[in-house]
Amino acid sequence: MIEYRDAATRYVTRDGGRTTYHSFSFGAHYDPDNTGFGALVAHNDERLPPGTGYDEHRHADVEIVTWVLTGALRHTSDAGTGVVRHGQVQRLSAGAGVIHAEVNAVEEETRFLQAWVRPDETGTAPDYAWADVDLREDWTVVAGVGGAVSLGARDSALLVAAPSEGRRLELPDAPRLHVFVARGAVMLGERRLGPADVARLVDEGGRDVTAETDSELVVWAFGGLAGEL
């Protein structure tokens, strides 16, 4: 089964100069039929103009993974601090509870994707990590087993690829896949997906996806990856 979702159907929050596009129910936006996918409970596309961000707030028992698309994001917390740019990944394991803040670190708009994933265990010690990522045309495991950063959800993984126009890739072989087009356009099945469009696949791992233009794909895989990428 493949469920396609257009970018325009996402829920939108505008507050404090920020704009957030939500793929799932979030805050004031509640849809009982769209509360998550696999272990993924939030997938937010954030746009922060210069001088904006999120002041200190608390999270617990969630794995928070951030992938910056443009600009730079400054993260501060009692678990760790860093500035993250495109080509770097950040993971905050909130565990028993952590207070953090996130602000735009540059004088231009910062756009980033932030995913919240249910952990395997609750009440663990908070932990923070970031790493450089070798962004390639083929799949790179960014977070999860064998990835640039570990993840406290063993059967979940984040993968990124930047295929050039005409490049055909085989999607990871996993029971559930959340495919997000960060830039460009791709063909998946009989559907053309443009910027910020999504496909949610159940038992469809291994399908081909073809880049219609130079593109960047951000994919969450759930239920374990089978075979070599």
Structure description:
By secondary structure, this protein is an all-beta fold. The protein has a single domain, classed as Jelly Rolls. Helices cover 0% and strands 52% of the residues. Strands 2-3-4-11-6-9-12 form a seven-stranded antiparallel β-sheet, with no helix packed on it. The chain is globular.
Short summary:
The protein is mainly beta and 229 residues long.
Order of helices and strands: EEEEEEEEEEEEEEEEEEEEE
Superfamily (CATH H level) name? Jelly Rolls
Q: How many helix segments?
A: 0
Q: Would you identify the CATH architecture?
A: Sandwich
Assigned CATH class: Mainly Beta
Distance between the termini: 22 Å
Question: Largest sheet, order of strands side by side?
Answer: 2-3-4-11-6-9-12
Unreliable residue runs: none
Q: What's the mean pLDDT score?
A: 95
